[in-house]
Amino acid sequence: MTIPAITLNDGTSFAALGFGTYKLTGDEGTNAVVSAIDNGYRVLDTAVNYGNEAEVGEAVRRSPVDRDELVVTTKIPGRHHGRDEAIASVTGSLQTLGLDRVDLLLIHWPNPSVGKWLETYEGMLEAREQGLVRSVGVSNFTAEMLGRLIDETGVTPAVNQIELHPYFPQAEMRAFHTEHGIRTESWSPLARRSELLAEPVFGRLAEKYGVTPSQVVIRWHVELDATPIPKSADPQRQRENADVFGFSLTADEVAEISALERGRLFDADPNHHEEM
Ligand SMILES: NC(=O)c1ccc[n+]([C@@H]2O[C@H](COP(=O)([O-])OP(=O)(O)OC[C@H]3O[C@@H](n4cnc5c(N)ncnc54)[C@H](OP(=O)(O)O)[C@@H]3O)[C@@H](O)[C@H]2O)c1
């Protein structure tokens, strides 16, 4: 399966669809990531706080796919915020991953009450200077935070990974990203922990296009020009989730799906929700 490549604002290669790894741990986790790469995924999404960087790194080494074709993403946790702490964090991640470069490094949550995301980002830029990191980005940043980051450092993040699914389509954030050349990456793209896939619209469109409800949801992300990162431990579902480039949705269908909007899955507003 070939997943289309796209180019980030720093000129590096990314993909229209990536692979989430939250909860993929141990040998089963490693095997699931190996199988995802085998099934065509090139963007891999881990984090210090997922406790599976070792598994992801092992899968990268075990896979026959060339290291340079993969975009290994990890994230700096709240407890590592600060300039020097950010450099120490990515150095630790590289050790755990067993790799010599992180392709995309994100700030996992801004944690406004800690007030150190700007210094953290400066540390990430330093890590990029040192060749430890190829691209820098953020996760769960608001438009206001992004504006400040750009004004104060002059470096627009390549990516903002945000909660995005049909129940929370984030039209304003996506418009801000487009305006500033920031790639939108969708976390929980299938709205884990909800009954999203049972919504009638997905059954109806799945039948129309001869696909599954999950494929309709994932195609909706592609139509929005966001990069979804569905997680599945199951090789068959991994293939299903990646096989969304042979059909498209009409503008009316995209709008009908976006009209399912009802808000966040849980109370993860980055102005208040913090993770260490
Ligand atoms: N930056 C952040 O703050 C943040 C927050 C949350 C998540 N993330 C990232 O985003 C990734 C994806 O989000 P997520 O893991 O929360 O949720 P998700 O990808 O929306 O959904 C994953 C769930 O859906 C199931 N599933 C996958 N494909 C399916 C299919 N074709 N049909 C039916 N069920 C299917 C999976 O089960 P099986 O594994 O059994 O298939 C799993 O239970 C994470 O893994 C993580 O990398 C980032």
CATH topology name: TIM Barrel
Strand order of the largest sheet: 3-4-5-6-7-8-9-10
Overall pLDDT score: 98
CATH architecture: Alpha-Beta Barrel
SSE order and pairing:
Layout: E1 5-7, E2 13-15, E3 19-20, H1 26-38, E4 43-45, H2 53-62, E5 71-76, H3 83-97, E6 102-107, H4 117-129, E7 133-139, H5 143-153, E8 159-163, H6 171-180, E9 183-187, H7 200-209, H8 213-223, E10 227-228, H9 235-242, H10 251-258
Parallel strand pairs: 3-4, 4-5, 5-6, 6-7, 7-8, 8-9, 9-10
Antiparallel strand pairs: 1-2
The structure holds NADP nicotinamide-adenine-dinucleotide phosphate.
Describe the 3D structure:
The strands form two sheets. An eight-stranded parallel β-sheet has the order 3-4-5-6-7-8-9-10. The protein is an alpha/beta fold. The model has no long low-confidence stretch (mean pLDDT about 100). It has one domain: Alpha-Beta Barrel (TIM Barrel), CATH 3.20.20.100. It has helices at about 25-40, 55-60, 85-95, 115-130, 145-155, 170-180, 200-210, 215-225, 235-240, 250-260, and strands at about 5, 15, 20, 45, 70-75, 100-105, 135-140, 160-165, 185, 225-230. The protein has ten helices and ten strands. Helix 1 links the parallel strand 3 (about 20) and strand 4 (about 45). It is globular and about 55 Å long. About 40% of the residues lie in helices and about 15% in strands. The longest helix is centred in the first third of the chain and has 15 residues, at about 85-95. Bound molecules: NADP nicotinamide-adenine-dinucleotide phosphate.
